[in-house]
Amino acid sequence: MFRCLVVSSVCLAYAREACEQNGSCNIQEPVSMLQAASKMKANCTGSKCGRGHPAWMGPISVLQSDEGVVPEFQVQEDGTWNTYFLPGASITDKRAVTYGINDKYYLMKYNTADYSKADNFKMIQLNGKTLITEVNLNGAGCGCNVNFFMVSMPAASPGQYGDYYCDGNCVGGNCCPEFDTNEMNTNALQVTNHNCWNPWSKNTCDGNGDPEMKFYPGEYGPGGNNAIDTNKPFFFSVQVREVIVGDGSPDNHLIVETRAWQGDKVVAKSMGGVNNPMNGMWGNFANGMVLVIDYWQSQDLTWLDGSACHAPEYCSGNKATLSNMQLISNDNPQLSASCPSSEGSDCSWAHQGNGACNNDDASEGWCRCCCTETALVPRCLWSGYSAF
């Protein structure tokens, strides 16, 4: 890893030189910013380079956050809260991570920031699984790209930034498959598949992405005129379903379904199918991919923001929070264990049709956590679901 131990202006100059050599940055924009005086990444503009996720530079041996607290991060997997690590991250109660511009974290199996070994990472196998989290964008709007996504790390070489990062746009020089479970701000949300074919390179990786899905105004955005009001926290999930027609059948395929929900409002979308590029990610999902939590900015994110914003854009830098992350097997009849239970209330799961949740609901989907308070006033929160 590179480490800047000089004043920030020298660090910025060094990053600019590296970025210009790589040819990926807009020279009119700030090329890098310092995060906690130890992390750095190059920013770029335009639709193609904007879809890349700039790598960060930091000390290889960081085991604790800047506050000196072990960065434990818990993920609920089929009802059990398992402890992993996000080196350098700001984490509250082990289940909420707050991050801002130029923050970038990898989900680790062990308390280490040695990114050279695959066994150090928590490898997530998305086939047959649903990834869920609660999102609070906190006003991160135009020009902000708040995201968490999957890549086939680690790369074989350290790359330009020394962290063994790779993605579908070959940011930092290393190329590998990338699945953007989301790229979002208060105005836009997009899910994109970036597959690569052997041998992985700029010529064999799909930097633009195919397929992709977008959430549109009226479905998603700031204000009560949208189904999902991004001024408030909401839940988001990505589910990968394997559709098996027969052994070795060319009609076997993947379906990716995403849902955003808030209160009793749900927006669901899907992509994939027979002969769809999504199927090229099948083996990568099965092998396991690394979860990256990332936040970056650009003066031109119009490919993401659409008509809601106009270049040049200036990201507010408001920090976002992900909390209560869950990874649930699609065939698991157990509901999310996050249905709250507090003093003075009786909480249990109920189907959205007001019936009880049970195994028979597996094909029907969404359930809600209903709490009857001491005053006998029902209070229902959409905070989980059964298997589809």
Automatic annotation (TrEMBL):
Keyword Manganese: no
Signal sequence interval, chain numbering: 1-15
Keywords, in A-Z order: Signal
SUPFAM superfamilies found in the cross-reference section: Concanavalin A-like lectins/glucanases
Matches recorded under InterPro entries: ConA-like_dom_sf, Glyco_hydro_7_sf
GO terms, biological process: carbohydrate metabolic process
Gene Ontology MF, one: hydrolase activity, hydrolyzing O-glycosyl compounds
The protein, known as: Egl1 protein
Organism: Symbiodinium pilosum (Dinoflagellate)
